[in-house]
Design goal:
Strand content: 15-25%
Helix content: 25-40%
CATH topology of the largest domain: Rossmann fold
Number of domains: 2
Shape: globular
CATH architecture of the largest domain: 3-Layer(aba) Sandwich
CATH superfamily of the largest domain: Succinyl-CoA synthetase domains
CATH class of the largest domain: Alpha Beta
Largest sheet: 7 strands, mixed
Number of helices: 9
Strand order of the largest sheet: 3-4-2-1-5-6-7
Radius of gyration: 19 Å
Distance between the termini: 20 Å
Number of strands: 14
Structural class: alpha/beta
Length: about 290
Amino acid sequence: MAILLDRDTRVAVQGMTGWAGTHHTTQMMEYGTNVVGGVRPGKGGRSHLNLPVFDNVAAIRAETGANASIVFVPPATAAAAMIEAIEAEMPLVVTVTERVPTLDMVRVKDALKGSKTRLVGANSQGVLAPGVCKLGVMATGSERAGSIGIVSRSASLTSEVVAQVTAAGLGQSTTVGVGGDAIHGMSMRDCVELFLADPDTKGVVLIGEIGGSQEQEVAELLQEVGTTKPVVALVVGTHAPRERRMGHAGALTFGFKGDAASKIAALEKAGVRVAPSAHLVGRTIAEAMARAN
């Protein structure tokens, strides 16, 4: 069992006819994802990749029963695409687009309030349930179905940790990239809550970094409910200079807020095992799982 995705996930691709949409839709279908069509205003009624194209999200929902969408739309119009999906009551929306203007994401967050939509991203590599569904742009090949849920702010580190978890013989239930921008949809806390409630996820890996307070929010959750499953974290950016963006919009510290040391301290206080280095995450979660069994 995975979180967010299953074998009944029917995917609509917003922006499917562009280069990125075409390329990644092809890869998702080759992985086995059930893509039911695309959305491109003004091109409704045509076909692309042997799939129907619709003018809007409401139409593809009505005609195909799509229950998830992925957004490959340029930054200037990405917010409009997300809001359209929210208004069409799309249950799950994953947005790959990065550098969506901040004020646009504020409007998206407002549209999410009280809606029926879970938004992953923007600036997300996506969601992957190994062997079940790939909804994103992540590399595949080292993933394996298993019992570890992974939630991450970093796409490149996700690939590394997935490989380590597979090498440790544990595999992954689901991998979720929440997005690297400062403002996005589902938080790390949201994902950890889902993993804790999922009976087939036996342990959780959290890949954090400097900037924001998401890791502290996870620590608060775990102090509230207890560490009912082993949780291991990696927090990168220990030696990053202050007030300088590292990689993307979300990885930025001001003063003494959002630094790696305070995140690590909060997680350890909540009972999380923090991996001392990126290359030791797989070993750390394997040890934590062995102690729990």
